[in-house]
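Morning run. Coffee first, then this:
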Amino acid sequence: MQLRSIILYSKSGDKRVLNFRLGELNIVTGTSQTGKSALLDIVDFCLGRDEITLPATAIFRTVAWYAVMLQLDDTRVFVARPAPGPNARSVTNGMIEMGADLAVPELADLKVATDSDTIRQQIGRRIGIGDPRSETPAGGFAAPLSANLGHAMLLCLQNQDEVALKRALFHRQNDEAHIRTALKTTIPYFLGAVPEDQAARQQQLLQARRALRKKQNDLRAAQELNRDVEARLRSLLGEARVHGLVDEAAVMDDDRGAILAALREAASFQPGSRFDDQQQRRRELELGQQASDLRRQLRTVAEERKLLTDLEAEENGYRGVVGRGMSRLSALHLVPAGAAGDETLCPACGSTLEDPDPTVTDMHTTLQELRGQLDAVRAAQPRREQALRELEQAAVGLRQRLRGVEGALSVLAEERERHAGLLGQAEAQAYTRGRIDAYLGQINSASDGREIQQLQSDVSIAQRIVEELEAQLDSEDIEGRLAHSLGYVSSQMTSHARYLRLEQGDRLVRLDLKKLTVVTDAIDEVTELIRIGSGKNHVGYHLAAHLALHQYFVSNQRPVPRFLMLDQPTQPYYPSDMAKRRGKLEDLSGDDDREAVKRLFRLMYDITASLSPDFQMIVSDHADLPDDWFQECVRYNWRDGETLIPPGWLDTPPHP
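And here it is:
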């Protein structure tokens, strides 16, 4: 896609048509305030940008519509957008037409028929932009990013505030954070490192991960719901018994299946005879007695457990005392074997004693006794630990049963207080049936564990799907393709930097996608564009990077518009207003600057010619070089009263 024409429609019906040559360098030169810089803003606006960046001067208020005529391989595309109204910050509507021999229409033929998103989608599809998507960063809530014509245009435009920046390399890079994210995400796609089928699988992986998280959450919710069902079921069973909804002896409290069956029966119970208050009181007494018995059993278990833990502490102390005694007696191993059993021999030197000394024999005997006692203590430890585990299990069971009994008592107390003198037996039964039915509705499918098993199976299947998709997405392969593409771009950037004789241009020059800047590599350091001095070098590196990217796009048939627009690339070389008005080489301060400006335009000319007819450049600048090749590229020279918008438009009344 290249730019055939830029068209402006006045409110009176006049047209201003600027035609450009395809596959060539097109230069618009002139003095300041002639409208050169507005050309880039018009193209950006017509190709789908909603934010208004067009001048708000009196002469621009005479414009009714802005339009461009684009040339694709087999057709032309006419895109028009209505001029913004006073104080408008954005415009979202427009029109688009396509045809092989499409001509520029008249003002009366322009009608709003679509919006900016549709314009970008239609043109994007025609130049081959598919539907590559990038997964949202972890923790984010935005929808996946889809590459479109707007992202491609970020690589095709450099206005006068951007072309000499050292802190940004691409169009609108410093506008908002989401623009930087879009650049980092879509440039690998435009370089061909992320093919469309890979992007589709990445989207499938995103959906599979979401499905896995949902199933995991469902499983956790079901497990949480099932955790304390036992105590709640027993509480409801006790309540059902109190109100005569189930038979007293029909259900055992430890049979969960029978409890569920009894509760379902209670939920469908049809009221019969009136409730017997004596039976309720009798049930309260029974439950109270059960609670007292369970508490007494819990106290007994706690006392037994404390006894065992105290015994363990005493045994630990006893083992320490015995161990120290055995440690002191360990010196016996130094006594000769014969001396240990002969009381007439000295255990230290082995000489004969006048009086027998039984000390050594006694010490050996003591040592053997201590060992025996310590072995007895150790033998008792496993049995005590087993007893402690059994007591803990018994305590858990007792506490669970106690919660069920206390729950039933609590319900009875609440019922007595709530319904005393107000509700009869039938009303109380109806209320209880409602509670039972509501709770069974929550735990019915999970009560027997089948739902949890099914959810566990679902989670396992979802996990396998995610793992298979992750295996298909080879991140190393993507990194390899991206490194190959950037290697080609780097070689071209290095060549351009050396031709332009840029500072540090003798190093390896490359594009850093993570930081969206140019860096130069030496053996001992890496230097970013922000640390390379002077606006002249910044312009040179911007030009080198964008030309290298478009060389790659053209050579590899990537879906990026085949044109590059630059606004005021020589602005660092023309510091004075007089120099800008004339644009002559002799107005520059020195020979080095004159040669540098000539090299800038010669590089644009040579690269465009080498890629012709598949690449077009449009440059707005003050420079007006005398060289024949330069003058052949000049399409418009706005000096001596020539401007983008004819001054006579101010004097022409609007069309009725």
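Residues 246 and 262 are 7 Å apart (CA to CA). Good start to the day.
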